[in-house]
Amino acid sequence: MRAIRPGLRNAYWYPVALTWFGTVHTALDEIGVQFDPNEFANAGSPVPLPEIIDFPGIGHLTRTELKPLAQALNGADLSVLADRRVAQSVAEMRHWIQFCAEADRDLVTFYT
Hints:
Blueprint: H1 19-30, H2 39-42, E1 57-61, H3 63-74, H4 84-103, E2 107-111
Antiparallel strand pairs: 1-2
């Protein structure tokens, strides 16, 4: 059995305002990757939970969704992104997605 890392870095995603998700979405469109990062905060829990009125926002992507997204991100040229912080956020997101795709695991995210 393979060991699972206790957590993935989120240096470029915490803390961020909700508007950051839109900024990164625009950058992903720019590099030809069809994904809305709002899924990280708004897709909902992968398991039933009582209604959450405020925080945290929960998102998830299944392993089936992650594999084609990992391929798209692997083929994307992040050097064309002018804003370094945006490029770093996309690179960090790419790492999460690649890690989970390679480990054949779903990705669950929380926005606080």
